Amino acid sequence: MNVLQLLRHLKRKLRWKRSWLTLGMFFTVVMVSYILYATGSRLSAGDSPGAVRSTFAGLTPVDDQRLQEATTMLKRITDSREGYLLKKYVCGEERSQLGLQSPQELLELQMKHPNWLLGIGANGEVTFTENIDDLSPECKEKAVFGIDGSSNLSLFNGTPAKDNVIRTFFQLNIKHLESSLPRETVEQLHEGIRVTDLEEYNSVLSTFSDYAMPPQETERAMTRP
Fold it and tell me: What's the distance, CA 93 to chain centroid?
């Protein structure tokens, strides 16, 4: 074999190797793409509990179990349902409509937001509940701490009044409170203390919890004729 034949032979071998290398790379890309697609499909559809646990490894065992139960319930749905999102804040809540959702869309929403709580109403509507450690926008505008008619520390929607109570916390020992705190602070509590964020909210609760009546005293006060 002369030099030219040797070169042609080497070129043919090189082209053959390149062809196989290109083909091998092509199959590798195809396989990787398929694996990624299949994995993504299983996660979005919630078909693999193991995959779900791997993806949401940060969930507590209780939350993980709840998520598995929620996805199981959603996979039983075969028709489109009205969807809602309920945002529950430390103070206040907001409910918004998500529109008509297909079974797959509902499942994808749950998988995208594993901490949302699932609820299915009597009419078949699906409500996701998101717990938010903050005050709602409305509470930031209107929430006021004050004392109700039974000496309870309560949160009001605006001016302290019976019809404006959002939440009642505990009964206050008024005598102890009035003898321990400056008059201005006591008067401010009766008039209403505005809170605009979670830090102020927690600060007021922490301050007046020192003047809460013991549970047994509260029970006696409530049952007293």
Answer: 13
Taking the C-alpha atoms of residue 74 and residue 104, their distance in angstroms, rounded to an integer, is 9
Q: Measured between alpha carbons, how far is 17 from 14 in angstroms, rounded to an integer?
A: 5
Rounded Cα distance between 27 and 24, Å, is 5
The pTM (predicted TM-score) of the whole model is: 0.64
Which residues span the domain enclosing 83?
58-135
- Here the tokens at position 12 are 């043919």
Domain shared by 64 and 128, yes or no: yes
Specify if 41 maps to a domain.
yes
Q: CB atoms < 10 A from the CB of 205, how many? A: 16
Gap between the Cα atoms of 87 and 105, Å rounded: 19
**pLDDT tens-digit map of 7-40:** 333 334 434 444 544 545 554 444 544 444 444 4
CA-closest candidate to residue 208, choices 155, 139, 158, 162: 155
CA angle centred on 154, ends 149 and 155, rounded to 5°: 130
